[in-house]
Amino acid sequence: MKPSRIRLNRGENSLQLVYPDREYTLPAEYLRVYSPSAEVRGHGPGEGVLVHGKIHVGIDNVEAAGRYALKLVFSDGHDSGIYTWDYLRELCEKHEELWRDYLERLQAAGKGRDPDESVVKFIP
């Protein structure tokens, strides 16, 4: 389902999507780490990469990709993901679950959200 309104909020680094039944605000970092691009998801099962260090990323531009999707241009130069209307709605509806999963994967990999910080694991 296509949102009835899309608003880029550069000050808050977020994208607001308004649907007839609900309104969502998705942070740029969340959209970046869940980019549908082959660079992030890979070309097949198990080929995806864990994107990290994107806490400060912003969205520089939002472009229509035909009538079925958006192309987001991020401040780190990433611009190859095409966010279909269905995928955007899925990201909206599963935001809490997907974000929790992402944070757990980061921790398990010893990675962080901030590119200027290093995560140190102590092994007993």
Summary tags:
124 residues; alpha+beta; 25% strand; 6 strands; single chain; 27% helix
Summarize the biggest pleated sheet.
3 strands, antiparallel
Secondary-structure class: alpha+beta
Low-confidence stretches: none
The radius of gyration is 15 Å
Major β-sheet strand ordering: 1-2-3
Estimate the strand proportion.
Answer: 25-35%
**How confident is the prediction overall: mean pLDDT?**
93
What's the β-strand tally?
6
Topology pattern, helix = H, strand = E: EEEHHEEEHH
Q: What is the count of DSSP helices, taking H or I runs of 4+ residues?
A: 4
Quick description:
The chain has helices spanning 28-33, 38-41, 85-93, 95-109, and strands at 5-9, 14-18, 23-27, 59-65, 69-74, 82-84. It has 124 residues and is of the alpha+beta class.
Secondary structure layout plus pairing:
Layout: E1 5-9, E2 14-18, E3 23-27, H1 28-33, H2 38-41, E4 59-65, E5 69-74, E6 82-84, H3 85-93, H4 95-109
Structure, explained:
By secondary structure, the chain is of the alpha+beta class. It has helices spanning 28-33, 38-41, 85-93, 95-109; strands at 5-9, 14-18, 23-27, 59-65, 69-74, 82-84. The strands form two sheets. Strands 1-2-3 form a three-stranded antiparallel β-sheet. The chain starts with a strand and ends in a 15-residue tail after the last helix. The model has no long low-confidence stretch (mean pLDDT 93).
